[in-house]
Design a protein that fits this description.
Blueprint: H1 2-7, H2 28-38, H3 53-56, H4 72-82, H5 89-92, E1 109-112, H6 115-128, E2 134-140, E3 145-153, E4 158-161, E5 173-179, E6 184-188, E7 194-197, E8 200-204, E9 212-215, E10 218-220, E11 223-225, E12 237-239, H7 248-253, E13 262-264, H8 286-293
Helix pairs in contact: 4-8
């Protein structure tokens, strides 16, 4: 009501998401804010547990048309995983490459449960292109280079933006096409459009903005954590097993657009399929049973 008074018009709110994916990640400050404002523990971090949620009387709609992949077979089995049905693991374990090596899948995006796996794979990726690598140092407000803040990049490198602007957002993936003197041209993965990126302020001290650090707002994204992959669609995907978090395996498996370009490093095991039962409003949608058998 207060917001509507400010804007002098009714505001419609649409909440969209798949609650079977990874639960929200909260910082300690956010945890404390939730507890102080609503008396809720961090176990209640899903949006529908907010005291104000029931006040809005939301209408629930189920979306059944999958846009990420056209494979009915793959979608059918993924919906089984969504409900914690481990009977379909044999289907996914057919995607295991018993001769897997990181070098074999340099043009794929690697999804990893742990950050240390991501760092290791990305280091190997950059080292494999060492002859083409250019080192870009950040600079401060006086134009001096900061040797402790550097990017190692090369043309053809998979990257991810880590800041929001009017042309791209935090998490947008792309490929470096051109490295200029003071700019980088990047092809956005989702749209295949080219954007020109320049250094921008990434750090600012608390003195009215007089001191700052400028760097390109990108990071290597040959490998990314499964948490970071939420919302992404991957044409070529390697999934590293060892999932431990609720919804983690399901999140990774639902990034795939083309199952023929999907690889598992090892077999998925039963304990990796963890689902938050409280978010399952519905069980297995009959639509996929019918379409698969049609």
């Amino acid at each position: 009501n207060e917001v509507e008074k400010i804007y002098k018009k009714r505001i419609q709110l649409i909440l969209v998401g798949d609650l079977s994916q990874l639960p929200p990640v909260c910082t300690k400050n956010e945890e404390n804010t939730i507890k102080n404002l609503w008396g809720k523990s961090i176990k209640d971090k899903f949006f529908y547990t907010a005291p104000s949620f029931d006040m809005f009387n939301f209408k629930t709609l189920f979306l059944y048309e999958v846009k990420r992949t056209s494979s009915v077979d793959y979608t059918y089995h993924t919906n089984k995983i969504r409900t914690g049905d481990i009977s379909v693991l044999d289907y996914y374990n057919r995607f295991v490459d018993v001769n897997y090596s990181n070098e074999k899948y340099m043009d794929y995006t690697h999804l990893c449960p742990l950050r240390k796996q991501v760092d290791k794979i990305n280091k190997e990726y950059i080292d494999a292109h060492r002859e083409q690598v250019r080192t870009i140092y950040a600079e401060n407000n006086e134009g001096k280079l900061i040797e402790t803040n550097k990017l190692e990049i090369f043309e053809g490198m998979q990257i991810m933006f880590n800041r929001n602007t009017d042309r791209f957002s935090n998490g947008t993936r792309g490929t470096i096409k051109v490295i200029g003197e003071d700019y980088i041209e990047i092809e956005i993965a989702q749209t295949q459009t080219i954007v020109r990126c320049k250094k921008m302020i990434i750090e600012n001290e608390e003195n009215m903005g007089r001191n700052y650090v400028k760097q390109y707002p990108i990071e290597v994204a040959h490998a990314i954590t499964i948490h970071k992959s939420q919302g992404q669609t991957l044409d070529k995907c390697v999934m590293h097993t060892g999932c431990f978090e609720v919804g983690q395996a399901y999140t990774a498996l639902t990034r795939v657009s083309d199952p023929s370009n999907f690889v598992l490093t090892r077999e998925l095991c039963n304990k990796e399929i963890k689902i938050a039962k409280e978010v399952l409003i519905e069980k297995r949608p009959e639509i996929w049973e019918d379409e698969l058998n049609s």
